[in-house]
Design brief:
The structure is a single chain. The protein is of the alpha/beta class. Helices cover about 35% and strands about 20% of the residues. The chain has a single domain, classed as Rossmann fold (3-Layer(aba) Sandwich). Helix 1 (about 20-30) crosses helix 13 and helix 7 crosses helix 9. The two termini are about 35 Å apart. About 45% of the residues are buried.
Length: about 400
């Protein structure tokens, strides 16, 4: 079973939201257009206070500091990537995961920490219990959450408030865990860790208070890539333990190759205002994926579906569980995420796809600061509860 220490309700430093925050979270409930398909839905979320497209959210404009061409920086990274001491990696790991955010659960989530041995190594899990679950006195559905960080860094502490929020909104136990990082431990180490954690949750379901038949997988960015790969592995191994996948701006095409349903172009982005900033935001992440490839999956076929889920077979995709995909309008990964969603819909998978206008990659990390971040968790919570037959969110939970 391992070692357990209860962190409890753990207060964090007070971060005051924008005075308009709560009003705009409420507004976001109705700020959308929706297209439905026989087994899917595409939802375009508008800016909180504007119907005009082609522009950044005002909060994001104020936070962007670098507007220059990122190409020279990436060329420098390519020159140092093979060196034993990589200064970029050192600096990146110090900076990644420092995004400010806020607890939106109103103190109604308890955290417990577990350390336990798996296959000759120790792993750590941070488990989130909403009051709703603890008061129900029955086994709860569970969400395994994989943090982002580009496979080479960790946002494990940053996502604490995201996990609090999703536990609160979804009425589920959330299990988050740090996984192995490249380049020290490249593919498939992180995937192996995820599969091991899935097994640990099932094996210890009673101790954790969760229902082993109601498991969802969730991740953001690189974590969403690993989550999607875990789902593919789960299907192809014949287990099918995962009953829902929730992917926040996932990396699904590490190969960066065009497919019949995917071709990346800057022309796919609606840009009217803030064009210099938007172009920088979109292109810099795209070039960065090339750098990450060299560290995470250098000696691997990048079209392997466990590396690039977009290349999974139709047979595998047809067996996937209900899926939620959330993207940002000005995210380089948006185009491949949309291509993945289309493949799922075409193959009969119940799919909800969200695109948030005016935002960039990683916006859910800003939970409690950007109203769209909380709105995304509201939308996820609604659909999670529908999938697992839970009661609807209360008015307090949905604000």
């Amino acid at each position: 079973m391992g070692i357990i220490s209860t962190v409890g309700r753990q207060r964090q430093p007070k971060i005051q939201p924008d005075l308009r925050y709560y009003e705009q979270v409420k507004l976001m409930k109705n700020r959308y257009t929706r297209r439905t398909f026989p087994n899917g839905e595409f939802i375009l979320k508008k800016l909180p206070t504007s119907d005009v497209g082609g522009q950044l959210d005002e909060r994001l404009v104020g936070s962007i500091k670098i507007h220059r061409d990122p190409t020279p920086v990436i060329q420098y990274l390519n020159n140092i990537i093979e060196k034993q001491y990589n200064p970029f990696l050192f600096l990146y790991r110090r900076v990644v995961g420092t995004t400010l955010n806020r607890d939106i659960s109103d103190g109604q989530v308890t955290i417990r920490e577990y350390d336990f041995p798996i296959e000759e190594r120790f792993m750590h899990a941070r488990v989130f219990y909403p009051d709703e679950v603890q008061q129900a006195n029955e086994l709860a559905p569970v969400i395994l959450y994989l943090h982002g960080g580009g496979f080479i860094g960790t946002t494990f502490d940053t996502i604490t408030n995201t996990c609090r929020g999703i536990a609160y909104k979804a009425g589920a136990v959330v299990v988050a865990f740090p996984y192995s990082l490249a380049p020290e431990k490249p593919f498939p180490h992180a995937l192996v860790d995820g599969i091991a954690m899935l097994g640990w949750v099932r094996d210890n379901a009673e101790m954790l208070g969760v229902d082993p038949g109601k498991i969802a997988i969730m991740g953001d960015s690189s974590g969403a890539n690993i989550a999607a790969a875990m789902n593919i592995y789960d299907i192809e191994s014949g287990n099918q333990w995962i009953k829902q996948q929730i992917l926040l701006y996932p990396i699904v095409n590490m190969a960066m190759k065009e497919t019949p349903g995917y071709e990346w172009s800057l022309d796919e982005y609606d840009i009217h205002d803030n064009d210099e900033i938007i172009t920088f935001i979109v292109k810099s992440l795209g070039i960065g994926v090339h750098y990450i490839n060299k560290l995470y999956a250098k000696h691997v076929d990048l079209k392997d579906p466990l590396v690039s889920p977009l290349f999974a077979s139709d047979k595998t995709i047809q067996q996937m569980p209900p899926t939620i995909i959330v993207t940002a309008e000005y995210d380089f990964l948006r185009i491949e995420s949309e291509a993945y969603a289309k493949r799922l819909v075409t193959n009969g998978v119940q799919t909800s796809f969200f695109r948030y206008r005016g935002l960039d990659h990683g916006f859910v990390d800003k939970i409690g600061i950007f109203p769209q971040s909380e709105d995304a968790l509201n939308e996820i919570g609604i659909r999670f509860r529908e999938t697992f037959g839970l009661g609807k969110m209360t008015e307090t939970e949905s604000v």
